[in-house]
Amino acid sequence: MLTNKRLILAHFWLAFASFGVALVLGAWQMFERSPLNVWHFNPEFYYRSVTAHGSVMGYVFPTLIAMGFGYSITEAALEKPLVGRRWAWAGFALVAVGAVVAMVPVSMGLASVLYTFYPPMVGNAFYYIGIVLVVVGSWIWVALMSVNLAVWKRENPDKTVPLAMFANVAGSYLWAWTAVGAALELLFQIIPVALGLKATIDAGLARVFFSWTLHAIVYFWLIPSYIAYYTIFPRAIGGRLYSDAMGRIAFILFLVVAMPIGIHHVFADPQVGAGFKFMHSVFTALVALPTFLTVFTICASAEISSRLRGGSGFFGWISALPWRNPIMLATALSLVMLGFGGAGGLINMSYQLNSSIHNTQWVTGHFHLIFGGAIVIMYFAIAYDLWPHLTGRALDHFSMMRTQLWLWFIGMIVTTFPWHYVGILGMPRRMAFYDYANPAIAAQAFPVVMSAIGALILLASGILFLVILIRGQFAPASEAGAYRFAIATHMPARMPVALNSFGIWLALMIGLSVINYGFPIVQLMALKDTSVPAVYVGAAK
Amino acid sequence: MSDQPLFSFRNPWFSVSVGITAGVAVLAAIAGFIILPLAQPNLQLSGLWDAICSAAGVPRRTVEAEALKPTFKTSSVVMTSEMLTHPDQVSIGRGATLAQKCAICHGPQGVSDANSPNLAGQFAAVTYKELNDFKTGARVNTIMSPFAVNMSDQDMRDIAAYYSYLPRVPSGHLDVSLSAPEIVVTGAPLRNIPPCGACHGEIDVKSGSPWLGGQSAVYIKAQLEAFATGARHNDISEQMRNIARRMRPDEINAVARYYESQP
């Protein structure tokens, strides 16, 4: 029962429109720094483009997907209209205004600091203020998710919270807590400098604050995709979810261990002690657990569905799966990319192996494979699945959808595999120019060209995706029926209260954050003479 | 359902999850703060507490060793990007009077053909820094050093403000058709040479980097060679010495000719 369809569609459309723009920038960047481009660009344009691409893809696009999908889940899973509709629109407006406010100075070249901010570089204050508005807008969504769950629980004291809503609220709490790091960095460190109230900045402390956000934000991006694995995929292929409780445990594990791991992003930074780096490395290893649980549960659900359809044999059931179904295809391709990306991630999180690939193109390849690949392909699946319910029109260009999904998968593999490879060869990231004529790096020229071709395939897939959605908006009207989520094979008669509430898990999340981040932050705050002069980017010449 | 205890060790979900989390944290801490630091002889730890402090990132006294000091004076100026960017009229006026003694070499309008630097339109922070370095002895020049020795800090600020106030005059060698040499636009990444334009205009202007357009080619070449040999050493953090050392003679000539021809 989706009642606020305009609200949800607005979120999805703004998300996909900004995704489309950022995708063009991404493809241009791949071309610009490849040997296909004879040097004739101002490198500043490259950094400007990276800042815009990263800010939109990292902050605006997934946040809007999580918000829009969150509202759909609230209405569909709790089977009641959203409480706080006006607040939801206000949150949407803040995100939209924030995105524009942030992108204007970036487009003008006044904030080419890259989306991870990189203090002591400091750009135009409006860039940061725009990002803060986006985050504040998303916090309204967090509050609404919590309020809606509380209202529903009061009305249904003896019912189990539906898995989709449980996971959705877990994701919103994770985001609320992980965004605090970047918010502290922006509000207390960067924005005062950007406004000229201070001239120095503690770059080390700022980087630690950002790492607080930087890793768990990935799990915030991931959670809509995981919700789709658990609650859309089994239903879409005509089966049942293997285990509802396993899903809850996976989302709970994300909540608890996604936070205290961000320092693996600053393994090469001298301001954090080696002991804390090791602790974060250990907890990063733990975050593989919910993914293993998920892969197992989803594969088991697929097997159940296949055997219901007559699939048999040890591996024979795989061929009996409904491969022509776009959701089936998207999920399978997503899991393949998740597998490769996750394997690469094990290198990144290991304190020792990390040093061989730190700050190389390997890292860019890794997060594009995980986020751009495994996660975003599920955003496509979510859109395909929801669109008929949101527009009231049929979305039945299945062969186009399959082509689009295959193109995205192929494009992402062709882009990111060579990217990983040149990273191992030592190619640094965040550089606008490479002299491929030089024998020392000439070997990197060919893989980089492959990457650029992959980017063009991704661009084609992205355009096709938008075409499918736009055609869906103009298709003949057709009633899609009530939107529902997958049902588990066996629903426990009595759900343990721990798997139906968040108290313990939020306490563990905050407790672990304090243990793993408390000392480094307090120590850096207490140390004197750790600030350096800000380097203003785009300052008056 | 809601009457079950949540935060209670009688709730197995609570005790097991808290137990596992605490267990992992404690084991990780023992490994990360005690076992691994003690396994590294190069840390020269004095005991358990020292190991924990070291792993926690508490600043430790490193092995005492005499830091190598250069045999010459280095620049004591701290550059910031906002430095001297808003000169006031009084300062410019005072600078105009003080600059009369500079005119014999640098020209009455801050431009001359004597192969000494043209100062008209130069960034104030640049002129101020160089005067300061001449005064402290970080940069030495037979003619300039005696002038700078007696200048007060305010004198140097005023002169710098005055010259930055003067308009840049087109060079006598102006030739905008000359295309920028590769070293100016892209540098030579494999020799660790950034593009000249990344600091000196074209691409970006960094604080303390002079505007080079219209400067005498003889002067630019002489300075690059002085940086390369170390005869000039007032560049902060050896920025220019590291670059000039790795430049080829033909690149130095090309850069000097190019900047001389620019506005």
Distance between the termini of chain A: 57 Å
The number of domains of chain B is 3
CATH C-level class of chain A: Mainly Alpha
| Strand and helix order of chain A | HHHEHHEHHHHHHHHHHHEE
Compute the number of strand runs of chain A. Answer: 4
Strand content of chain B: under 5%
Assign a percent range to the helix content of chain A.
55-70%
Assembly type of the chains comes to heterodimer
Q: What's the total helix number of chain B?
A: 11
Folded structure, characterized:
The complex is a heterodimer of chains A (541) and B (263). Chain A is built from 16 helices and 4 strands. Chain A has one domain (5-485, 504-533): Cytochrome C Oxidase, Chain A. In chain A, the strands form 2 sheets. Chain A has a two-stranded parallel ribbon with strand order 1-4. A two-stranded antiparallel ribbon of chain A has the order 2-3. Chain A is mainly α. In chain A, helix 3 runs antiparallel to helix 4. Helices cover 69% and strands 1% of the residues of chain A. The model of chain A has no long low-confidence stretch (mean pLDDT 94). Chain B is mainly alpha-helical. Chain B has 3 domains: 12-56; 89-165, Orthogonal Bundle (Cytochrome Bc1 Complex, Chain D, domain 2), CATH 1.10.760; 182-261, Cytochrome c-like domain (Cytochrome Bc1 Complex, Chain D, domain 2, Orthogonal Bundle). In chain B, 46% of the residues lie in helices and 2% in strands. Chain B has a two-stranded antiparallel sheet with strand order 1-2. In chain B, helix 9 crosses helix 10 (239-246). The radius of gyration of chain B is 29 Å and the shape is elongated. Chain B starts with 11 loop residues before the first helix and ends with a helix. Chains A and B meet through helix 8, helix 16 and strand 4 of A and helix 1, helix 2 and strand 2 of B.
